[in-house]
């Protein structure tokens, strides 16, 4: 990012020097997009499709709100920054949903820990034995 103002024109020619400001404006989106993708995968694996939908709707609403002034001004850099704002909105919603998912799992583990009815029933019956698998 620091070298982009000199590197882009050197590699692609002086005609591409105008591409440096939009490139730099897209960097926040690039940084935010990766944790967002990880959270999307985690929530999809946990079958939390509503959380994914909420995150994508938040992104769409934030993108629409941020694009309006950028388009009114005719700013390419503003449009690139609008993408970063939208990704930040999605990341916040997905992060909250993922945090809730992991907190629910922790609470469930605490409820089924030692001393709970589930643990006592299991202990009374003894350790579950492995069932033999059929051969053939």
Oligomeric state, counting identical vs distinct chains:
single chain
Biggest β-sheet strands, sense, barrel: none
Residues in helix, %: over 70%
Query: What percent of residues are in strands?
Result: under 5%
Average predicted local confidence, pLDDT: 80
How far apart are the termini? 62 Å
Uncertain residue segments: 122-132
N to C succession of SSEs:
HHHHH
Number of helices, where a helix is a run of at least 4 consecutive DSSP H or I residues: 5
The coarse overall form would be elongated
The class by helix and strand makeup works out as mainly alpha
Radius of gyration: 25 Å
Q: How many β strands by DSSP? A: 0
Short précis:
The protein has helices at 4-12, 20-45, 49-73, 76-111, 117-125. With 136 residues, the chain is mainly α.
Structure commentary:
- By secondary structure, the chain is mostly helical.
- Helices cover 77% and strands 0% of the residues.
- The radius of gyration is 25 Å and the shape is elongated.
- About 8% of the residues have low confidence.
């Amino acid at each position: 990012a620091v070298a982009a103002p000199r590197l882009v024109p050197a590699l692609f020619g002086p005609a591409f020097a105008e591409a440096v400001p939009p490139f730099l404006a897209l960097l926040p989106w690039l940084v935010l997009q990766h944790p967002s993708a990880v959270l999307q995968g985690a929530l999809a694996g946990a079958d939390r499709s509503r959380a994914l939908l909420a995150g994508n709707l938040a992104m769409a609403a934030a993108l629409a709100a941020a694009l309006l002034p950028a388009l009114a001004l005719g700013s390419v850099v503003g449009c690139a920054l609008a993408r970063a704002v939208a990704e930040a909105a999605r990341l916040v919603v997905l992060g909250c949903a993922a945090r809730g998912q992991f907190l629910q799992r922790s609470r469930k583990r605490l409820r089924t820990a030692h001393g709970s009815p589930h643990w006592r029933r299991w202990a009374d019956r003894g350790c579950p034995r492995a069932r033999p698998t059929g051969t053939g």
